[in-house]
Design goal:
This protein is 59% helix and 0% strand. By secondary structure, it is mainly alpha-helical.
Length: 116
């Protein structure tokens, strides 16, 4: 849920700061924080990469001429879909963490290793 605390849309890595700070400070002190933190960071890093890739695709399609310019809506719709998926996953992960369960994030790349 700490990913919701930092909202910096222009930077897009703002949602990484909350989980990163909590994970770095509490991973050894509280049981389960290491696994939950790594899972959340893997997902937020993945979402940031996907967001930037879709943004770059949007920049390319916005320069298409004539009727091909209609393709410009696809990347922006996908970007909003990524934002919605991020929000839903953050809330679902927070609820599962409250019950002591690890949330399996969809489309997350494992940068920080296996969570469990």
């Amino acid at each position: 849920m700490s990913a919701l605390l930092v909202v910096v849309p222009a930077v897009r890595f703002g949602s990484v700061l909350g989980p990163l700070v909590v994970w770095l400070m509490k991973r050894g002190a509280l049981p389960g924080v290491d696994a939950h933190g790594r899972a959340a960071l893997n997902f937020q890093f993945s979402m940031a990469i996907y967001w930037w890739a879709v943004w770059a695709l949007g920049q390319l399609t916005s320069r298409l001429p004539g009727p091909m310019a209609l393709l410009d809506w696809g990347p922006w719709a996908l970007m909003w879909g990524l934002h919605l998926l991020n929000l839903v996953c953050i809330i679902a992960a927070g609820l599962k963490a409250g019950r002591g369960e690890i949330f399996k994030y969809p489309i997350a790349i494992r940068f920080l290793g296996k969570t469990l």
